[in-house]
Amino acid sequence: MKYKIYLSPPHMSGREMKYIEEAFDSNWIAPVGPNIDAFEEELCQYTGSRHALSVSSGTAALHLALLALGVGPEDIVLCQSLTFVATANPIMYVGATPVFIDSESVTWNMCPNALEDAIRHYLSIGKKPKAVIVVHLYGMPAMLREILYLCKKYEIYLIEDAAEALGSEYQGRKAGTFGDIGILSFNGNKIITTSGGGAMLSDNVKYIERARFLATQAREPVLHYEHQTVGYNYRMSNICAGIGRGQLEVVDERVRQRRANFQFYSGHLDKLQEINFQKEPIGVFSNRWLTALKISKSPTYQKSANNILNELNKNRIESRSIWKPMHLQPLYCEHKYFGNNISKELFEKGICLPSGTTLWEADIDYICNIIASNLR
Ligand SMILES: *Cc1c(COP(=O)(O)O)cnc(C)c1O
Q1: pTM to 2 decimals?
Q2: Which of 179, 194, 202, 335 has its C-alpha lying 20 to 30 A from 23's C-alpha?
């Protein structure tokens, strides 16, 4: 095939320019303005969160979430190991210590048993963890009921990294609204984009106001420039918020399209016993941001997964392995880890397939044929 197939390219709705033009016409070319206020309001309406703060990236939102919860040096944060590095790095920004938690094999997200082992271990040595960061990998909600139960029981804050999960639901409620704070990303590869950006969601207005203050250089509310705290320049621009508004109008359509991709892939490949997809448990609705699969039941699975990745990329089909777990990264391998190597296995056997919303069924056919012919 002649054109390159990307993993998850941006897909404009055509409604973005209207909001960008409004910004130009009213001269709100700044990190304040009407698009920002409206985008935050629309995010609340869409997710059901009481409050929202738009910022310059998902990573900034995570950093602000930790600061708003008062996480700092001496604190332990229990973080899902199988994720993108941006989940863990903000723990280092605030000088806290990340401890990594393995995945379970259904949703591939944080294993509640490993989480409880870690909590009990730290309680037994008198160091109560301050916060948990759970991720909804590739849009699949984690086992929130169990994780929320543990966070309540042991009185530990929960941050939901829903960067990949806008539009996903758990028991009818939107991902990102279960934790004390949830974060979203609008990077170019996510389900909707502002070219680059993120948001923090919370029902607690105190966290949002604290984060808004820190994101605006921590300027005290007086007429002159008065500062008592180190702040950041993390606000979203009014132009980017305009892109976000045009994108948010079609988010449900994008979710439908991503889920249709998954249906095509699984329709073609489910009959192959070597292939397992990330499972959507009952009561859970994934946006299927990326279709991800695992090669198993093959003695040479790792070779298989690598072969398939090589073959796909050789044919101008952008595909990636599953995230390499944080506890196996040179950056974090000295940190404590609790679990049973599920995330390691997913990394070794797992592949993310092109999942953009402009894919043709013929593209998926073509991709599936390459996968099937390189399985053994
Ligand atoms: C994309 C992503 C982030 C970071 O978001 P940015 O907007 O790129 O800073 C954090 N966590 C996960 C799981 C992500 O996929």
Answers
A1: 0.96
A2: 202
